[in-house]
Amino acid sequence: MQNPVTTANVSDFAELPATASHGPLRIEYRWVNEAAGNAPVAVFLHEGLGSIAMWRDWPQALCERLGMRGLAYSRPGYGLSTPREHDVKWPVDFMTGQARDILPALLDALGIGTQERKRMWLIGHSDGGSITLLYAALYPDELAGAVAIAPHVFVEDISVDSIAQTKALYETTDLRSKLGRYHADVDSAFYGWNDIWLNPAFREWRIVDELAAIRQPLLAVQGHDDNYGTMAQIDTIAERVPHARLVKLDACGHSPHRDAPDALNEAIAAFISRPR
């Protein structure tokens, strides 16, 4: 079922041609803090049920703090981007495909070339944090650094249990109508995410070994009260990426940009501005 999406700002769209890994895609994107002119770009990668609209005003506020331009986009299946066909299931390695194929193609379509990418920061949350880590590992020379917020690098019981509970809420409460404010096809968005995370084959998914390829500065952030993952996620990142910096936030759940925005913004600003 298609649902109208209302957003405070107007999005633009990029057309990505079909490749061996995906069909033609229409990707919703939006620039924020364009007043920063030729400043470095911060690319925001949303969570598993996120979209441009669900970020609200946080990318703008953070980019103003950093003096950067921001680029937010809705991944295929989310927001106003090309929806997932309802009979299509995301593959176990879907996040690798997003990092390897979709994000580089979007950067190409928007004219963000090699030199600009060398100054680019990726800022990803949850599944978007995992995609951020994968991009940093796959393209270590095509970014200045990365911030992974509540990322997943392997599957924990707490994640699967919470996602199963979210499915029950989606099917029995008003959660579906609430999410429908942020996605043109809310069932496409929800079940694309929910089905893969609850797929028994996905229990074996892990990107731990890939992390060792990350060379650029990396900040990993986790809330102590996150019901979708434990500190083992970012502790594992630190084991594989010795130069990574960890920030563990008190009184903070799975969404630090909503639960503890001041502490998160301070941590990101301090990390990005520190001498290398």
TrEMBL record:
E.C. numbers: 4.2.99.20
Keyword Protease: no
Domain AB hydrolase-1: 43-267
Protein's recorded name: 2-succinyl-6-hydroxy-2, 4-cyclohexadiene-1-carboxylate synthase
Pfam families in the cross-refs: Abhydrolase_6 (PF12697)
InterPro entries registered for this protein in UniProt: AB_hydrolase_1, AB_hydrolase_fold, AB_hydrolase_sf
UniProt-listed Gene3D superfamilies: alpha/beta hydrolase
GO molecular function: 2-succinyl-6-hydroxy-2,4-cyclohexadiene-1-carboxylate synthase activity
Keyword field: Lyase
Record carries keyword Lyase: yes
EC class of the enzyme, as a word: lyase
Superkingdom per UniProt: Bacteria
